[in-house]
Amino acid sequence: MGLANILVHIDSKPRAAARLQLALKIAERTGAGLTGVFAEKAAAHQVGAVGSWPSPKYNEALDAASAALEFATSSARNRVGLFDLNRGSDAEINHRFAELARTFDLVILGQTHEDEPVPAKLAEHTIVESGRPVLVVPYVGTYPDVGRRPLIAWRSSRGAARALSDCLPLLAKDCDALIVEVARKSENRDEFADRLVAHLADHGVSARYQHFVVDEVAVMDTLLSAVSDHAADLLTIGAFDHGTQALFGHGAGTRHILAHMTAPVLFSH
Questions:
Q1: What value does the mean pLDDT take over residues 211-217?
Q2: Does pTM top 0.90 for this prediction?
Q3: CA–CA separation, 72 and 228 (whole Å)
């Protein structure tokens, strides 16, 4: 099944344009509709002891984001909409964003950065709570499209299988896909890896498989090195998968990728 509707997070900062352009490219290529959701932290307007919402500052930011969306999508062939999340606190934004995301096929948002007016845990919360695949775009770099040189992080797990399925609509027909399994010394190579390559071939995707054996602390860094070596334009990975870098606690590997990504990453949970 392909993509019918995509949700992209926008705010009033310049970096939102990179997410928007990538979302628009994916929407045009897949025939999906695109909805921008404005979500930005802001305090209520205070007059003495009385607070009012939304504040003038919030409304100004919303107007700027709306204008940017209208300008960027003026020539879009598919439907484009805007939803104002209309929340100002971290907890409210995280909760309502995840609820809205559940009604879309794909969610696109940006990597957390201290200069961005969004909750620090927005990406993490959306990945865990929305039940939807989440494409996170790095806060530096230019990414005109994804799916021509995908890297699929693999291990024999439910999360990795879900991520593989979720990434298929994003892959170009003539893509050069690489499947990478990074295992610890105590783990065996997936005995069905060849079948995995054949499965992708059944979907028209030509893929190669590579297996690495490393110390536990090097699992995610090895994966990021493979992204660089492959010049990948997309990493797809099972997020918060049980057992991934268990030495550091559940979710440590996912958080490491979220903090150090060098290409757009599709997280599935």
A1: 79
A2: yes
A3: 30
